[in-house]
Amino acid sequence: MTTSEIGLLGLGTMGAALALNIADHGFDIAVYNRTTAVTRDFKRDAGDLSDRITPTESLQDFVAAIAKPRAIILMVPAGDPVDQQIAALRPLLDDDDLIIDAGNANFHDTNRRAREAGDKPFLGIGVSGGEEGARFGPSIMGGGKKASWDRVAHILTAIAADHEGTPCATWMGEEGAGHFVKAVHNGIEYADMQMIAEVYGILRDGMGLDNAAIAAVFDRWNAGPLKSYLIEISARVAEAKDTDTGRPLLDIITDAAGQKGTGRWTAIEAQHLGAPVPAIEAAVAARNLSAARNLRKIGEEMYGAAPQPLDGALSEDQLEQALIAGKIICYAQGFQMISAASTQFGWKLPLPDIARVWREGCIIRSVMLDDMATALTQTPDENLMFAAKFADDLKANHTALRQVVAQAALHGLAVPALSSGLAYFDTMRTARGTANMLQGQRDYFGRHGFERLDRDGKDYHGPWAD
Ligand SMILES: NC(=O)C1=CN([C@@H]2O[C@H](COP(=O)(O)OP(=O)(O)OC[C@H]3O[C@@H](n4cnc5c(N)ncnc54)[C@H](OP(=O)(O)O)[C@@H]3O)[C@@H](O)[C@H]2O)C=CC1
Ligand SMILES: O=C(CO)[C@H](O)[C@H](O)COP(=O)(O)O
């Protein structure tokens, strides 16, 4: 039997698309799936690529079909399935065979698995782009030993998205570095999506636009500074019709958002790192609250429906500007978090390269990331809000963000991520804040002490100390 250059286990949405992508780039691939019928269907439906695909129906046959030293991609749900598959595979493998977890693992799990693997090669790679990205060019964020990355870099860079000749696949650092960067990517994704959804709510409830008009607004914005995959697909979602009923699809989708955990992990980790990402945290909270549909129904019955028409208080241009400002602020938070993690975990995460691999292939790809890559190349650890290009953009657009948040509040339209972004902006441009009151309170009730502006030293107390 001819042996394949690489193996892939888990032919779900992402695994099947990734396997076809690998085959499409000329690499022979062995595949295995827990449910055998899926493997057979996959081979049957692979068309011209079928010759490059070796389907297998047992782990033993799967391993035997891969050339040594082997490289095996796992594309199964994060958590126990990954541990189960590693445990099942390792006894069948040689010590120099490489296992690559390409799902959305929690980076703490990837750290643990890398340590458990010891000298046996193991990579954790974040893959973004959804099904289409996986099939035709995802963004890939690698973590683990550099030597292991180098063994498969020719395949990963070949299948990755391409931005003007540069592949969107980069090694980020040791152990869970790749999965950490993917988690922050997803956190930014949550905030970006939430801000778009909030603006959709204003267009719908505040301005009374129908779905087709909203799609047209998003399409128009997609030709300007907001040009991005998420704005583009928001237009497609807004204009879609339900194939069964012919009704606008958005009107029949339940207003409760799912989540698999990456946004929540980002918010939790940001708290551990002391690197605040409040827009991302607001987006995670908004998803949680979206699930509380029964409570929201009770609230509406009790208080009356909040959203009120804006009666011309806001223009579409102001909404566009508010989204520009909000987007810069949420990316600034994400990159600050990556910078903090880089120091905390000793990873030396390449911030400009991270912006570069996000320019194509991934869900948060946008024209803005090009300028972010340039800004981060000049000053990698600087808050993007202070980079000249984005400072200019924020100066031009923050007033609109303020007006949108203010008018939304006055008219009962919930905009938690935009509000949080504005509060972050205002906090970060206020040299004399209000935490002096917090320190006074802490000292009053707990003798925690405070610093003074007019003297050196750390442990002063107020007159209540006696
Ligand atoms: N969908 C997306 O847009 C993206 C997903 N990801 C991540 O990629 C990974 C895979 O996601 P996706 O392809 O969407 O998931 P799917 O649910 O479509 O597919 C899951 C695959 O894993 C297999 N599987 C599930 N549980 C086990 C198990 N315990 N042991 C062995 N095999 C198992 C399934 O096999 P079977 O056919 O037998 O059920 C199936 O092949 C996840 O970590 C996800 O978070 C990353 C980026 C984007
Ligand atoms: O990683 C992804 C995109 O980048 C996946 O689509 C992920 O499932 C999205 O997260 P969630 O399911 O929590 O919305």
List the helices and strands and how they pair.
Elements: E1 6-9, H1 13-24, E2 29-32, H2 36-44, E3 53-56, H3 59-64, E4 71-74, H4 80-89, E5 98-101, H5 107-117, E6 122-128, H6 130-136, E7 139-144, H7 146-159, E8 162-163, E9 166-167, E10 169-173, H8 177-206, H9 211-221, H10 229-239, H11 262-273, H12 278-291, H13 293-303, H14 316-345, H15 351-357, H16 368-378, H17 388-410, H18 416-428, H19 435-446
Parallel strand pairs: 1-2, 1-4, 2-3, 4-5, 5-6, 7-10
Antiparallel strand pairs: 6-7, 8-9
Helix pairs in contact: 1-6, 1-7, 5-8, 8-11, 8-12, 8-14, 9-10, 11-12, 12-18, 14-17, 14-18, 15-16, 17-18
Bound molecules: NADPH dihydro-nicotinamide-adenine-dinucleotide phosphate and ribulose-5-phosphate.
Characterise this structure:
InterPro entries: 6-PGluconate_DH-like_C_sf, 6PGD_dom2, 6PGDH_C, 6PGDH_Gnd/GntZ, 6PGDH_NADP-bd, 6PGdom_BS, NAD(P)-bd_dom_sf, Pgluconate_DH. Residues 178-465 form the 6-phosphogluconate dehydrogenase C-terminal domain. It catalyses: 6-phospho-D-gluconate + NADP(+) = D-ribulose 5-phosphate + CO2 + NADPH. The chain is α/β, with parallel strands linked by helices and 466 residues long. It folds into three domains: 6-175, 3-Layer(aba) Sandwich (Rossmann fold), CATH 3.40.50; 183-428, N-(1-d-carboxylethyl)-l-norvaline Dehydrogenase, domain 2 (Orthogonal Bundle), CATH 1.10.1040.10; 435-465, Up-down Bundle (Single alpha-helices involved in coiled-coils or other helix-helix interfaces), CATH 1.20.5. Helix content is 55%, strand content 9%. It has 19 helices and ten strands. The protein has helices at 13-24, 36-44, 59-64, 80-89, 107-117, 130-136, 146-159, 177-206, 211-221, 229-239, 262-273, 278-291, 293-303, 316-345, 351-357, 368-378, 388-410, 416-428, 435-446, and strands at 6-9, 29-32, 53-56, 71-74, 98-101, 122-128, 139-144, 162-163, 166-167, 169-173. The strands form two sheets. The chain has an eight-stranded mixed β-sheet with strand order 3-2-1-4-5-6-7-10, with helices on both faces. Strands 8-9 form a two-stranded antiparallel ribbon. Strand 5, helix 5 (107-117) and strand 6 (122-128) form a beta-alpha-beta unit. The longest helix is centred in the middle third of the chain and has 30 residues, at 177-206. The mean pLDDT is 97. Bound molecules: NADPH dihydro-nicotinamide-adenine-dinucleotide phosphate (NDP) and ribulose-5-phosphate. Residues 104, 128, 130, 186, 189, 258-260, 262-263, 363 line the site of ribulose-5-phosphate.
